[in-house]
Specification:
Elements: E1 2-7, H1 8-14, E2 18-22, H2 27-36, E3 41-44, H3 48-57, E4 61-67, E5 70-71, H4 81-85, E6 93-97, H5 101-107, E7 113-117, H6 122-132, E8 136-141, H7 151-165, H8 172-176, H9 197-203, E9 211-217, E10 223-229
Parallel strand pairs: 1-8, 2-7, 2-8, 3-6, 4-6
Antiparallel strand pairs: 3-10, 4-5, 7-9, 9-10
Length: 230
């Protein structure tokens, strides 16, 4: 099995084989928590206008997402797992748009199969891919705002690669140390209303969920996320 690590939207476009689009802080952690909070499904979209259009189509739905890390005006929730775990999403469709993660899903058009990636279900991702035993896996670290390398996304890619190749290079300590690097923004008092400290801990809770989120392209250009148990 060959495992490539790529970055940003360009990496998503280049990705081939079984592909994992990784956004730890916070899009694809939020996706897992949304399903755990009862969501019937998730539709990922690139644009804010597209999200509002989908909201009009799906009456039993909620808008979740961010721009510049903050909740988009008119949306029900920001891109925050802390908000999502307190929400009743039972039987609701989540319409999700973010600066990095959902852009990667939309652009991964050359992949054979696309999954979302985060620490909270990384073990399930490894198990799912190993069962497929593909010859090629692409791990795409989406980065901060899809333009700057993000330590948490690259570390998650390393963690998934370790699992696929039966290696053990990523320790619990490395994940915890993100608090002092890329995760510092969650502990800035100025960000507490939209990026609280609890988001950091919820996003770095390794292997909390035993399911993967599989992406399926829709005819309208958006992407549906399908919860699949492992």
């Amino acid at each position: 099995m060959k495992v490539n690590i790529l970055e940003f939207v360009e990496g998503a476009r280049e990705a081939r084989g079984v592909t994992v689009i990784i956004d730890v802080f916070r899009a694809f952690s939020v996706g897992c928590y949304a399903f755990d909070s009862g969501a019937a499904g998730i539709i990922a979209t690139a644009g804010v206008d597209d999200a509002f259009a989908l909201k009009r189509e799906y009456t039993n739905s909620v808008l979740v997402g961010e721009r510049d890390e903050k909740k988009i005006p008119g949306f029900d929730f920001g891109n925050s797992p802390t908000e999502i775990i307190q929400a009743d999403l039972h039987c609701k469709t989540v319409i999700h748009t973010t600066t990095a993660g959902t852009q990667g899903l939309i652009n991964a058009t050359g992949a054979d199969l696309v999954l979302t990636g985060s620490f909270v279900n990384a073990g399930a991702i490894v198990k799912f891919i190993k069962a497929l035993n593909p010859s090629l896996v692409s791990l795409v670290a989406m980065g901060y705002r899809a333009t700057v390398s993000a330590e948490e996304d690259l570390l998650c890619a390393d963690y998934i690669r370790d699992g696929l190749l039966d290696e053990h290079n990523v320790s619990e300590g490395k994940i915890a140390s993100l608090m002092n690097s890329s995760g510092r923004r969650f502990f800035n008092p100025a960000n507490i209303d939209f990026s609280p400290p609890s988001d950091f801990f919820l996003c770095t809770m390794k292997d909390r969920f035993n399911f993967v989120l599989r992406a399926e392209s829709r005819t309208d250009g958006n992407v549906a996320l399908i919860k699949t148990e492992t």
